[in-house]
Amino acid sequence: MNDCVNAGVRDALPDFVNHRLSELDAVTISEHVESCADCRAEVAILRDLMNTRPLAPIMNVDRLSAAIPAYAPLRARSTGFPMRRTWALAAAAALVAIGGWAITTRTIDTSAPQVAATVPVTAATTASVPTTVAPVTTTVAKSENTTKEVQVASLSLVGSTDDLSDSDLESLVAALDGIEAVPSAEPGSVTTTVDDLDGNDDQ
Amino acid sequence: MTSGSQDERTDSELIERWKAGDSRAATQIVTRHADALARFAVSSGERAEIEELVQDTFVRAFSSIDSFRGDSSLRTWLFTIERRLMLDRRRAERRQKAMVPVEPADAVTEYDALDALVAEEAESKVRRAVDLLSPMQREVFTLRVEQGMSYRDIAEIVGSTEGAARVHYHNAMRAVKESVSE
Asked: A52, B58, B106, B175 — which has fewest CB within 10 A?
């Protein structure tokens, strides 16, 4: 026993046997079946199957309907969900608050050396402390792994500023104006050092 | 509203009416699908407590009606639920059989008599051939032939693809033809 090569007709045979096709389709399939032994064999099997299918008991609709519960929306039934959602939102808010606090603290810590670096220069200038000139350098750490030294001024601060000539004073003032109190490297941490001003190598 | 117009309402309309508090809409849905669910259960090999199975199907369906998205027909969705219940029932029966030895008399039900009568009358080689199919082939075959389901709906009920359902059907038909011709 072979299979008909017309797969479309074979697919439609169960519907043909059960009278589920339109009149036009039923006529088309009927004509094909008459001329195709393979499809005739399948139709015979399908009809035999339908004739011998086990009988189902008759359903008692009233009894079945009586067992159906009243409608309860899904939201009304799951009371636990809103509580879980509230807790999730509270946890998320707490996380954001802690994160914000940590970022603020880190910003304050990184700016502290910049203030310390600025103070000695100002003190040396205004208190007329006789010191020897040392190059003022600013170290800008752009990231944790890379540092870059930027020569911002080469300045002589040995002795009192009274000893300086007008041109030296002008160059000193110009150099001081040129020092950035807050280096513009963003967003990495910034560290400014002034070497040999107070004998320490502060980072 | 006449009963005739109620018959013309779609399943979706009846569901909405039931949600709004109209219990007659639920009765309408039960009337429309209960017999098909019973036939599907019997075709799938269930022999006992068919009405209980159909009732459980409706209770479960109406209890989770909000999860019915309308992607398939309501009948396909109901068949899917009933099939899961049948699988659960068979698993429970297997566990019970594994624990408690069953006397032959215990297994007799009111349906066995009917089965025997049908088998005697028909003596159909075809029916016996279908009984020899694999569970998946038999399920697809009966859904296609006896319930008139499309391959797309069958695929959704048995948790497969449309192409796989088509292959299962044609393999089943080939096996039945070979069995009949022997």
From this structure: B106
Nearest residue, CB atoms, B42 vs list A42, A48, A56? A56
Beta-carbon count within 10 A of A140 CB: 20
CATH number at residue B37: 1.10.1740.10
pLDDT per residue over A138-178, tens digit each?
A: 444 444 444 444 444 444 445 566 666 777 777 777 776 76
CATH code: domain of residue B155: 1.10.10.10
Q: Which domain holds residue B71?
A: 1-104
Which positions in chain B touch A62 (Cβ < 8 Å)? 27
Q: Where are the domains of chain A?
A: 7-66, 111-203
Q: What are phi and psi of A179, to 5 degrees?
A: -75, 130
Indicate whether B72 and B145 sit together in one domain.
no
* pTM across the whole model: 0.57
For the ranges A96-105, A194-203, B109-118, the maximum mean pLDDT occurs at A96-105
Within 8 A of B54 by CB-CB distance, chain A residues are 59, 64
pLDDT at B159 exceeding the cut of 50:
yes
Per DSSP, the three-state class of B116 is: helix
